[in-house]
Design goal:
single chain, alpha+beta, Immunoglobulin-like, 3 domains, five-stranded mixed sheet, flat, binds copper (II) ion
Amino acid sequence: MKKLIAAASAFLCLTAASAQAGLTPGGVSLQEANSAVAEDVHFFHNAVLMPIITFICVFVLALLIWVMVRYNRGANATPKKFSHNTLVEIVWTGVPILILLVIALPSFELLFKQDITPDGKQTVIAADGSAREFAFANDFPERRMVENRRHLEVLVASEAETRRLRYNADYTVEGFGEPEIRVALNEAPDAGARVIIRGGQSSQNASGCGFFGRYFDLCEKEIVMAPTMTLKVNGYQWNWQYYYPDFGNFDFFSNMLAEDAASEELYRLEVDNRVVVPVGETIRVITTANDVIHAWAMPAFALKIDAVPGRINETWFKAEREGVFYGQCSEICGVKHAFMPIAVEVVSRPEFEAWVDEQRAFAGMDPMFTNNDVKLAQGDRAETVVLD
Ligand SMILES: [Cu+2]
């Protein structure tokens, strides 16, 4: 009975936690992914972990039922007395080892992906209609140099479309691992088109990569660009402070909206001042804390990182689409731990730049991107926040 109550309350907690996310009220599944890493994490959970766990549960249940029916006192009055069976013992040691390997190998890859900030860079060259050979400076630190085709991507962008070229079929490469990589296209691109060569150790599976491709890492790779900005996150009992060091280091505090100010669904998730970041760009996140350990967690980006006083932790994310995404402090940090939510607003580059200038104006700095002479106070912006 106790176990039943525990299971029921665990289920209710799960339901409540997902409903709190505000995206699918009453939902019990993971928040929708908004980054390639989160997609990989979801894939790993849905296609690898859940089937394995389900199979083990059903298998063990079947064994239990079989033992209860076949070997109860009525059905099996005189039980055998042996205590060892070498074959069974080899199987029940070997099979779990294999299962753990199947889980461990892709999960290590995921851990590295989350942990290591991308370093990709690109060279964009305007084609003149005749040139077929283009150079890419392989000027990464020694152990991060581009050494094979998996860490290089070649695209041709015209006004109409951007096309990914295929290695060998469309282009060949000389000079992997050397300071200069030379890419030779089989066909000269049209004049006015741009040849984009991307390189770096950081890559993600190209979209449309199927089960086996993802699991065995067989797909074409897309290079992930190095961060375009850093977001510094500082945890307090009980709110968050955000710094934008690349834009004059303006900062602001982000507090949870009171119950009467937030919509019912977003109470304990919505804040007065959201973090604003540009869509499709790699964002470096560094975290620290002012008092006790907090954790900055954003399920939509599969991101969770401790914020520790006196230390800096680093992670990254790249949001694939615009919108508002919610997370919460995920390290018990005191009585109001549940009242320091995180709201990240992903916007287009122009919107982001306008917002940066607004923040700079508020901090008494000149605009960086626009000649925006509207000086908004921090509170004004909070009031214009739309909650749907
Ligand atoms: Cu906290």
